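Hi V.,

Quick status before I head out on leave. The structure for the redesign project is tokenized and pasted below; the design run finished overnight.
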């Protein structure tokens, strides 16, 4: 048996070697070396506090992900993905060009010696900015409309100011910090809590994870008031330049909706604008005023535009002369036991001056000349003539009117 076992031992050893070689050939054929590309491996930034200590904020311009080529046996490499690798960039090693080298290692240390990693581009490029802090008031943005005959009054946010920290360029884009609250069909005061959002100059929301707000929510209180419609009254003060007068005052709107607590607005009958001055003017005046400046405390203008447009037309004065006879003059204040008659009305001329549209329509009947006899005693009296008062019209009389008073008994 022993002799048979060791018989032809050389051939047997040769067969074993051949079998091993054959196995190696088969293994290399079925598990050959391959190279695969693995893309978009997220890169973690390490030691970011180094930049924060310098009051600087960074942004990744290039290199927030990395692509690699992995070479190794097919059985090891073929099933690998981005999840099997860890990529990092140590910001404490940043160069003077603001670039940092990216390193990639397999998460499974057991395959580290079985693969070879080559980078497509392993440089992370950063941009650096100064970190700034700025305060913004929290504004309330309402959505929808309250119920009919109701309006939005004062509104309050808590906090009413927030602090925003971030890159200077990002902070400069922030125009408003707002909380949006629905007031649709509201008939009573509202309370709500909402997220604070940042808006740019175009009203678009700013989304930037580099901006840090001191608070992200605000509590909101909104007063909802009943509405009342009142008249707008405009009065002017002062006098235009000599020879000029006010012909018309035009303003729009002539009514305004106000809102407030019932006990407050019930006492408000109108809003009066009485500080429009025309002193010394020779030309028409156009101006706008904000009605909120003329309403009582606790009342708000319940319309989108609280302004009123006012036009004061100023025209040059004109004049004309009207002749008067004795028969044109009537007596007032007569005593029953006296007789009254005009003795003379020679050369009685009335010069009327005022605005063209008024003066053009005046005649003897329109100015209605009168003499007040209530204080006249018996005898002959030179008297003043009275005329009908008309807006802006001045009268100047040339000549003398003599009235003779006699007793009826005589």
């Amino acid at each position: 048996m022993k002799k048979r076992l060791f018989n032809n031992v050389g051939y047997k050893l040769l067969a074993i070697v051949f079998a091993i070689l054959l196995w190696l050939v088969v293994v290399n054929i079925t598990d050959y070396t391959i190279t695969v590309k693995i893309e978009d491996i997220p890169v973690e930034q390490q030691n970011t506090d180094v930049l924060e200590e310098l009051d600087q904020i960074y942004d990744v311009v290039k290199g927030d992900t990395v692509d690699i080529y992995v070479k190794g046996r097919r059985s090891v490499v073929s099933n690998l993905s981005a999840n099997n690798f860890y990529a990092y960039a140590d910001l404490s090693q940043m160069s003077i060009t603001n670039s940092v080298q990216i390193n990639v290692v397999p998460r499974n240390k057991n395959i580290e010696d079985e693969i070879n990693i080559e980078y497509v581009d392993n440089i992370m490029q950063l941009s650096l900015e100064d970190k700034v802090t700025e305060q913004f008031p929290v504004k309330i943005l309402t959505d929808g409309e309250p119920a009919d005959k109701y309006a939005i009054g004062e509104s309050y946010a808590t906090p009413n100011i927030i602090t925003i920290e971030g890159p200077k360029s990002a902070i400069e884009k922030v125009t408003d910090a707002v909380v949006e609250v629905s007031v649709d069909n509201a008939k009573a005061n509202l309370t709500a809590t909402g997220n604070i959002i940042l808006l740019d100059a175009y009203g678009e929301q700013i989304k930037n994870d580099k901006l840090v707000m001191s608070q992200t929510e605000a509590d909101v209180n909104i007063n909802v008031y009943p509405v009342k419609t009142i008249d707008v009254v405009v009065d002017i003060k002062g006098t235009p330049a000599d020879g000029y007068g006010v012909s018309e005052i035009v303003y729009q709107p002539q009514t305004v909706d106000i809102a407030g607590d019932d006990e407050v607005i019930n006492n408000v009958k109108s809003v009066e604008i009485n500080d429009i001055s025309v002193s010394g003017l020779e030309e028409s005046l156009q101006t706008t005023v904000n009605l909120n400046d003329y309403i009582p405390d606790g009342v708000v203008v319940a319309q989108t535009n609280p302004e009123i447009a006012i036009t004061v037309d100023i025209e040059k004065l004109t004049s004309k002369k009207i002749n008067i006879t004795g028969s044109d003059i009537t007596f007032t204040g007569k005593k029953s036991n006296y007789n009254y008659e005009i003795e003379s009305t020679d050369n009685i001329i009335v010069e009327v001056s005022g605005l063209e549209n008024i003066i053009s329509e005046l005649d003897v009947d329109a100015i209605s000349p009168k003499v007040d006899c209530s204080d006249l005693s018996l005898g002959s009296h030179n008297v003043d003539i009275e005329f009908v008062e008309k807006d802006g019209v001045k009268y100047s009389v040339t000549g003398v009117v003599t009235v003779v008073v006699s007793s009826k008994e005589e």
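Above is the designed sequence. The chain has a mean pLDDT of 87.

G. will cover questions while I'm gone.

Best,
W.
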